[in-house]
Design brief:
The complex is a heterodimer. Chain A has helices at residues 3-57, 65-83, 87-110, 112-116, 118-153, 157-164, 177-180. The longest helix of chain A is centred in the first third of the chain and has 55 residues, at 3-57. By secondary structure, chain A is an all-alpha fold. In chain A, helix 1 packs across helix 3 and helix 1 runs antiparallel to helix 5. Chain B has helices at 4-36, 42-60, 62-69, 81-94, 127-132, 135-150, 153-181, 193-233, 236-248, 278-282, 289-296, and strands at residues 72-74, 100-104, 111-114, 122-126. In chain B, helix 1 runs antiparallel to helix 8 (193-233) and helix 9 packs antiparallel against helix 11. The longest helix of chain B is centred in the C-terminal third of the chain and has 41 residues, at 193-233. The N and C termini of chain B lie close together (8 Å). The chains are: A mainly alpha, B mainly alpha. At the A-B interface, helix 5 of A face helix 4 of B.
């Protein structure tokens, strides 16, 4: 094997590697867009359950005015977010419904009539399932973005990424995440417990 | 302390090396065999074909076979909504098609997953598991089983089994043939007696070494499935809790399990590998549960 053959094989090898990486980047970007749509899809599914939930628990929630307000606000937020491609809006809407679930669960648990009602327990399971589905849809976006980003920033795939202008994807953006990743000075003080 | 990402990377690396070791071993065996038998490849080809065809049928129908042996019954959303929702959701985040879900009517705590590829996956859990585990723990077990499907473990172990079977078959034939021939070999390098000796010893030990590497691969893939489950759920505590409960209830036997399908289950239903000597552990398809818990906690 003379030098020319080796050089040709090397160039062909690098070319094939670059082609497969380019295709990977394009496929990954398409899948990331699809996963964002899927989050909207799951939010819509969650929103569709709300009227059923309202109907079956309305009688029992007469005294829980704030829960009913939360329900109405959450439904509006979801309706506004599921149409747009704005992921931040979707995340906010999903958060509101997520806050509702535990409060509803407490009410169901403490109200024996509600607890015995199979429609309500089925609906609680459905609500929990929709919450899970939204979480897993978001996790899919996180995983896809991470796999894509690893190849964009590590060597030697970053050379191909830079050559074709592939940039890092932001993945799942979370509003006000700053608070969750910071520890305030007041948090580091020993808490005082008075029983 | 290893996090979930590092656990997966470590398992991928170790899996790669043990499979490479196996390929190198099989290649060395092929080399020694053809050297000692005058470069006659026909035995090897025949053995591979026969072993391959024999294993192919059981591989292709692995889901039907395993499910019928376990007397597993399909479930519906009406009867088992939480179980099915968990399977559906975890399959979507694992990015594999939803496998068919089954239930084994047994008080034992166990589960298995099989299928020739993710499009033909099947998962089964016992009633005992559904009754004893919390939802998070059940999701950990389901994530482990789905990871086996996603990582193509059925296909990998089938290929390994075909190669191990071929080695045993080749040896079986060559002993018989040598007996009849009486050693007519035109070996013109008598000086290579040492190589021949090494070759003969290697070939005699080959089937057992092949099986030991096969079992090592199986154990490594169990660790890999555990790490993949922790990554899928981002909550190792689920699978850790499930494994602890499974370990505590190992005295409840799974009646329908036998040695043929034992390797598919999350906990080996036939051997209690943690209570044996290092020799028992060497011949186990599963690592001891205590080690699996330690690995999930990032301690090893």
């Amino acid at each position: 094997m003379n030098t020319t053959t080796i050089l040709i094989l090397l160039v062909v090898g690098i070319g094939l590697y670059a082609i497969s990486l380019y295709n990977f980047f394009q496929t990954a970007l398409t899948r990331i867009k699809a996963s964002i749509q899927e989050i909207g899809n799951q939010l819509k599914r969650q929103a569709d359950l709300i009227p059923n939930l309202e109907a079956s628990v309305k009688g029992y929630l007469k005294h829980e005015k704030d829960i009913l307000t939360m329900l109405a606000d959450a439904r509006k937020a979801v309706a506004g977010a599921s149409g747009s491609a704005d992921l931040a809006k979707k995340s906010k809407a999903a958060g509101m419904l997520g806050d509702l679930l535990p409060r509803l669960a407490v009410i169901v648990e403490s109200n024996p009539e509600l607890k015995a009602n199979t429609t309500v327990t089925q609906l609680m399971e459905e609500l929990r399932d929709t919450s899970d589905k939204v979480m897993y849809a978001r996790r899919t976006l996180i995983d896809l973005s991470a796999d894509y980003n690893v190849k964009v920033v590590t060597f030697p795939s970053n050379l191909v990424a830079n050559a074709f202008g592939f940039k890092e994807q932001s993945g799942l953006e979370i509003e006000d995440i700053g608070d969750a990743t910071k520890v305030k000075a007041t948090d580091t003080k020993t808490p005082k417990i008075s029983l | 302390m290893l996090n979930v990402y590092e656990q997966i990377d470590q398992n991928k690396r170790r899996s790669f090396w043990v499979i490479t070791l196996f390929i190198a071993f099989v290649t060395t065996f092929g080399y020694f065999f053809t050297y000692l038998y005058n470069y006659d490849y026909s035995f090897l080809i025949f053995a591979l074909l026969i072993s391959g065809v024999g294993s192919f049928v059981s591989y292709y129908n692995s889901d039907k076979i395993a499910l019928s042996l376990a007397h597993a019954k399909p479930v519906t959303h009406k009867t088992h909504p939480q179980y099915l929702n968990a399977v559906e959701n975890l399959a979507s985040v694992a990015r594999i098609p939803k496998p068919k879900a089954y239930l084994i009517d047994s008080p034992a705590l166990n589960a298995f997953a099989t299928g020739r590829d993710p499009a033909h996956g099947a998962i089964a859990v016992t009633q005992g598991l559904l009754d004893t585990l919390t939802r998070t723990e059940l999701e950990g077990v389901i994530a482990h089983e789905l990871s086996h499907i996603k990582n193509f473990d059925t296909r990998l172990m089938t290929i390994v089994a075909i190669l191990v079977g071929s080695i045993a078959m080749v040896l079986d034939w060559s002993w018989r043939i040598s007996w009849h021939r009486g050693g007519e070999r035109d070996n013109d390098n008598k000086g290579n007696a040492i190589v021949m000796l090494i070759g003969v010893i290697f070939i005699i030990l080959a089937p057992i070494i092949a099986q030991l590497i096969q079992l090592a691969i199986s154990r490594r893939r169990e660790f890999y499935a555990d790490a993949s489950a922790a990554h899928l759920t981002r909550q190792p505590s689920g699978l850790i809790g499930a494994l602890k409960k499974i370990m505590a209830n190992e005295n409840i036997k799974l009646e329908t399990a036998n040695t043929a399908t034992a390797h598919l289950y999350i906990d080996d239903p036939v051997t209690v590998e943690s209570h044996g000597s290092w020799l028992t552990r060497l011949f186990s398809t599963h690592p001891p549960i205590a080690d699996r818990i330690k690995a999930l906690e990032g301690a090893i």
